[in-house]
Predict the 3D structure of the following.
Amino acid sequence: MEAFREWTAFIFEYAIFYYGMFLMFSYLMLAIFSIIEINKYNRRNRYINYTPLLNSPHVPGISVIAPAFNEGAVIKNGVHTLLSLNYPKFEVIIVNDGSTDDSLQQLIDEYDLVIVNFFYREKVKCQPVKAVYKSTNPVYSKLIVVDKENGKSKADASNAGINVSSYPLFLCTDIDCILHKDTLVKMVKPFVEEKTRVIATGAVIRISNSCEVENGYLQKIKVPKQYLPLFQELEYIRAFLLGRMAWSKINALMLVSGGIGLFDKEIVLAAGGYDHASFGEDMELINRMRMWMHDNKQKYLVTYIPESLCYTEVPASLNVFARQRTRWAKGLAQTLWMHKKVFFNPKYKIFGLLTFPYWVFFEWLAPLIEAGGVIYYVYLIITGQINWPYAIVLLLFIYSFSVMITLISILWDDFAGMKYTRKREVLKLCLAAAAEPFAYHPLVLFFSLRGNWFFFTNKKLTWGVMTRIGFKKKKAI
Amino acid sequence: MAFFSFILIVITLIVIFCNRVRKVRKEKAVAKAEDIIFEELSEHLLTYDTVTDIPEEEMNDTVCKLNKLKNQDKVFRRTMVHLMVYFQMNLRGTVTNIISSAYSRLKLREFTRGKLRSYFWFKKTQGLTEVQGMRDGHSLPEVQNLIDDSNQDVRVAAYNVLLKLKANNCFDFMVDEKEELSEWHQIMLEDGVVKTPGLEIPDFKIYLTTECNSIILLCIKLIVYYRQYNAVPKLLSMLDHEQEDVRTKIIEALGSLNSDNYEERLIEKYPEETIKNKSAILIALGQMGSTLSGDFIKKKFLGAKNFDILENAAAAIISHPGRLKDSLTANMSELDEKHQAILQHFEEPLNAYGSV
Amino acid sequence: MKKRILIVDDESLVTKYLKARLKQENLAVDIAVDGQEALKKAKNHKYDLILTDLMIPNVAGRELIMQIQESMLNAETPIIVLSSLSSDELIVDVLATGVKDYIVKPFSVNVIVAKIKQLLQLSLKAA
């Protein structure tokens, strides 16, 4: 018993302490790398004139793929926003994934769709496609609607979109995402600018929950008013601007979000397309693409641009948030387990020796260690063994460090392009950063643990339905 | 350590708010400067059709006012340059001479030249953008100095300026540039060539001997754009190039140019090529209307084992200007289901924007 | 009564200059910076001419043209497209929708003013 107590004390007071130090050091490094990358991007693109690209017949074509399941509230306006993107060579593929509402009929009526003779070739597996529709109105000639049987996942629907696509690149997005009009032009730039082959590019996703949206178009950007979306906004800023920009700098990015990601179709197909059984299909795909490139000894880049090009509605209710975070945690564990051969494998270079282990130790394991730490401290308090001054100082340090990192992300967000015009909105974000460790982080921790529990017990998880407010003009919430 | 974090928190908060205040102030200052300069220009200079129409007194008064503003504040100076470049790039005709005249009289060129001499690559490219926008031939010597810059973005921007200003030997970069250009650079340079009216266009085939593959690709694009049929023999001789991408572009160019005598050579090359280039050959042959190309495409279509070949052969059949499509579709029932379906796909007019 | 023109373009300086120039010709000018605003204005006012860019926020340029042509008040209003997009296929496609002219940027202000005056005269004669 004594030996057990000693070992437990050793683990939590020394090993975990140094683990925490290393984690914090890594955040500082991410902060430094990300600002270097943001500055580099700003300098390169401040005086860019996109007109030559918009007029060139040699730009790579892009297929914009947006799966839709029971999206009747948003589908018409969502398609309008996608068709209004500025780019000389693109198509919009809406995949109706067995909707039981009137999504398909709305599209048929709005866009004068008819079934066409379309040679459907299944390059990656997915549920059967029933019909392919195109518009008889030449103004909507870029639109293709694919009607298929429900595949119970976004991955399956995305694969159907890939099978139908004509162009060498595809942009994966959600029908409820509001994309900036220059999304395609800005995201294609790394593909045409880099001399090493770029296989995927991501951009920053922001939250549209309290923004003024009219007919699917963003009129005014506002900080979320509701509690859950507000904290999620902080999380997104930190993840995208700090985390992903930094990883992109050293070509070690392991995740390009499904909300907005531009991919090289040839490599996606070679890697096998999306895995419909995965709950973290976006991360899982990038892993497989990276592995394929290494296995075939090809140089490549996965890049990120620090521009807020996509606005999406995030869960405002606890139920939906719980489902989403549980799914993400399960997806993360599933992906890491599936590709465990990458772990510390020198064959995969920085991906295998740094990124993958980092995600194992500091993304997947972190909630488990944190939960263990909390339990241990509670045990110390109950048994009267706690060293109060030390514990308080340690807690203060962890708290202040996490607030500091979040504030740095908010500052980097300003450097990347001030989205919030009013100072009080930024002040609100800063105050939320101070409250986050108490008011929000415990929820994230709990649902991460739940997701891991689901993974280890092989408990079934469904995608669920995101309750949307939709794109109709919203009064202030 | 906790104390250190708290200090950093306070510093970060201060920086966030100071940065915002600074940015908002700067935006307001720029907007105000823009309004004032725009009003001066539009009410006193741009109301006239040509420079000679402007009374000397009014010109001097306006230049004097703008000079005062320019010397008072660097925000005004930068905004002035930005506005003038903006108008030069968006407008054509005699109004641009008025802008150029004001630019010269205000000696704004000096500030642009200062950027060209900067240590930083992004300052140099900014300066080059301004020279290009203002079509400022007086700054050509400074631009010429930058064609040897160590940064390729600067060099390409300099090449672009030389093209836009129709400088002597503006195509020398096709020989001198040894580093591979990205697609983006090629797009910029192609735009620089084709969007410069009155530029003396050389025979691009003379540059096809370069070792820089991206320059070859750029030349091929320009050969196709300017329909330089005399380059066809040279292109045919390069069908054995070691780089697959170069061969692909050559095949596509031959199809676009659609001149005589290339189909036999392409048919001869076909068996040695990769799937990607075989597909390109079929598409190129589809643009010819001859019986030889038609028979070849038909044979490949009916015997295709690889789907990409089948798909591209079908596309070539539909686009073939001869009677190939009719001969196949007349006997549609003799084709198997797959061949029928794929032909119907390409025949469907609503599918015109894409392949399978 | 003054002729009324709607300019749809998100490039503020160009539209400001055009507006100033057109005001000199005794024309009333409204500006819309995005497609939604343009459609709202077209729904509420009858314009004598509409000058629009294709790369505008919030509605695809060609869709905007189609919706204006289907609107009650402005179905017969002549439309001129003013855009930096210069591909031949696009210009042919857009002209096929029934717009009166397609001018590629950079443009000559004098030429635009002359074309506008000519179209306004024509529509006056037609009326």
